[in-house]
Specification:
The protein has about 150 residues and is of the alpha+beta class. Helices cover about 40% and strands about 10% of the residues. The chain is built from eight helices and two strands, in the order H-H-E-H-H-E-H-H-H-H. It has a two-stranded antiparallel sheet. It is globular. It binds 2'-deoxyadenosine-5'-diphosphate and magnesium ion. 2'-deoxyadenosine-5'-diphosphate binds next to loops.
Amino acid sequence: GVPFKPDTPVKPDGVERGLVGEIIKRFESKGYKLVALQLMHPTKEQLEEHYGDLKTKSFFPKLVAYMLSGPVVGMVWEGKDAVKTGRKLLGETNPLNSAPGTIRGDFCIDVGKNLCHGSDAVESAQKEIALWFPQGVKSVARGLDRLIYE
Ligand code: DAT
Ligand code: MG
């Protein structure tokens, strides 16, 4: 397996809008390997840890309330440069700055309803995977990789 795994949850608006399949499809079509997937009802404590680096921001309480507004779908994707490229597939934090063709560029408008999360570094991906998938994730070799990687 290729070791870089971003933790990529679909936020409550993405689940309620029926865009889970579309978001999964973007990562699948790119060639990344799905190694974990789970519908979750996050707790306030989990979200405060997940967004710990934003605790002092004025929008933090609103962000946590948004993320508590419904179920989210957590997923872990594996593949070459998956963290950096996964962020490109998502688009910019502010959807209005996101290019068409990206998930946020194609499906949303406001920063406080930006559909999806993506880990911003390999280190934060590892922390987020441990937080949301405490049972661990397992990557199984697949024959398809011979058609994806040279
Ligand atoms: P990203 O989700 O692109 O990694 P981030 O980590 O800086 O962005 O912020 C986490 C989330 O917080 C982001 O997806 C939406 C919200 N957010 C960020 N900046 C914001 C702002 N200026 N106003 C309102 N919400 C904001
Ligand atoms: Mg972030």
